[in-house]
């Protein structure tokens, strides 16, 4: 079954060999406080300590290294304001390639500066993410740049899957893995890896209630568009692409469920990470902890929660930790 999917365990093992030494093998630690709440051993995979602050470096690095030398020389391109943009900028620079990252004029200056600092050529175009993507398409068409998308690409999924291999190696008896879920590159890769090693392992995707595109698509039986809303888990926003080729089919086949979290629950997850585990995580990185705290996970064996990223505005983080109202947190009806 698994071998008919676009990305196999063998692809993920090959990705792990390719990116070895170029990404951090992140630690996995026991959480006594969460184990007490969940009644089973709970491990946290500290992937927010990855270079550039998120797991996206795994997929970007594998994708850049999988290009032929001629393709790499043409340069890579993506439209991203967030963790994929950072990761691709870093991965390209590390391989001596030029990364062009397209963003709309509405992106805050600090995000632009951060991606420039990582060595990317930033192009500011248009007034929306769609217009930025049109510029990406033009650069691919007219200048021959290689597009590396944030999730819907076999080499990206295989790279994210290396995180699952590290979990399976460290804890072969893992019963349930909790994976933050947006476009599904991380969930697809991690599920293919851990289920490839042990088919009995359950993989649960976690999204915010406000605009969970993969959940809506799985329910509808095909990719659908959802309304985008602000969320503490901003890295989980955006659609899965109506022409999705890789991640929808893999998530449909491999995920054992999707759990949705409210903004209040995500805030509690971030607070717990900080106060009890000593970790600064962004909203998207806190959804696993949030689901455990909310009692939304049922499992009889050891759980691993992936803390997927740490790139949060520190002023917003401070407000969440202090329990101050985050303006949009509860304006959901
Ligand atoms: C991108 C991202 C996700 C979601 O990954 P997908 O592959 O799009 O599902 C989760 N957490 C963080 C921190 C991210 O940057």
Automatic annotation (TrEMBL):
Q: Which InterPro entries match?
A: Ectoine_EutB (IPR014333), Ser/Thr_Dehydratase (IPR050147), Ser/Thr_deHydtase_PyrdxlP-BS (IPR000634), TrpB-like_PALP (IPR001926), TrpB-like_PALP_sf (IPR036052)
UniProt GO MF annotations? L-serine ammonia-lyase activity; pyridoxal phosphate binding; threonine deaminase activity
User: What are the Tryptophan synthase beta chain-like PALP domain coordinates in residue numbering?
Assistant: 23-309
* Entry keywords, A to Z: Lyase, Pyridoxal phosphate
Identify the cofactor(s).
pyridoxal 5'-phosphate
| PROSITE patterns in UniProt | DEHYDRATASE_SER_THR
- Please verify whether the record's keywords include Cell membrane: no
Alphabetical GO biological process terms: isoleucine biosynthetic process; L-serine catabolic process; L-threonine catabolic process
Record-listed E.C. numbers: 4.3.1.19
Q: Which top EC class applies here? A: lyase
The record ties this protein, via PANTHER family, to: L-THREONINE DEHYDRATASE CATABOLIC TDCB (PTHR48078:SF6), THREONINE DEHYDRATASE, MITOCHONDRIAL-RELATED (PTHR48078)
Which family would the database say this protein is a member of? Belongs to the serine/threonine dehydratase family.
| Name by which UniProt lists this protein | Threonine dehydratase
Which species is listed as the source? Rhizobium lentis
Taxonomic classification: Bacteria, Pseudomonadati, Pseudomonadota, Alphaproteobacteria, Hyphomicrobiales
């Amino acid at each position: 079954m698994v071998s008919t999917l676009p990305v196999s365990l063998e692809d993920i093992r090959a990705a792990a060999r390719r990116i070895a030494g170029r990404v951090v093998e992140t630690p996995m630690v026991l959480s006594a406080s969460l184990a007490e709440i969940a009644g089973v051993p709970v491990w946290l995979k500290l992937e927010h300590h990855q270079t550039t602050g998120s797991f996206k470096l795994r997929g970007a690095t594998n994708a850049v290294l999988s290009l032929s030398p001629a393709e790499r020389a043409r340069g890579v391109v993506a439209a991203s304001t967030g963790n994929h943009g950072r990761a691709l900028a870093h991965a390209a620079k590390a391989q001596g390639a030029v990364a062009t990252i397209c963003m709309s004029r509405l992106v805050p200056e600090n995000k632009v500066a951060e991606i420039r600092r990582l060595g990317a050529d930033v192009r500011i175009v248009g007034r929306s993410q769609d217009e930025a993507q049109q510029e990406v398409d033009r650069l691919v068409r007219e200048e021959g740049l290689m597009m590396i998308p944030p999730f819907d690409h076999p080499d990206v999924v295989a790279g994210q899957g290396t995180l699952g291999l590290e979990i399976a190696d460290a804890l072969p008896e893992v019963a349930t893995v909790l994976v933050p879920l947006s476009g599904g590159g991380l969930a697809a890769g991690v599920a293919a890896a851990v289920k490839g090693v042990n088919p009995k392992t359950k993989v649960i995707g976690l999204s915010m209630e406000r605009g969970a595109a993969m959940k809506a698509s799985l329910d509808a039986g095909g990719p659908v568009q959802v309304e985008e809303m602000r969320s503490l888990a901003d890295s989980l926003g955006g659609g899965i692409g109506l022409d999705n080729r890789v991640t929808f089919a893999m998530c449909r086949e491999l995920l054992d469920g999707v759990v949705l979290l409210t903004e209040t629950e995500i805030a509690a997850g971030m607070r717990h990470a900080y106060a009890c585990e000593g970790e600064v995580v962004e909203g998207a990185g806190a959804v696993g902890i949030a689901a455990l705290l909310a009692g939304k996970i049922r499992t009889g064996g050891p759980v691993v929660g992936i803390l997927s990223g740490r790139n949060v505005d520190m002023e917003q983080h401070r407000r969440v930790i202090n329990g101050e109202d985050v303006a949009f947190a509860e304006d959901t009806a």
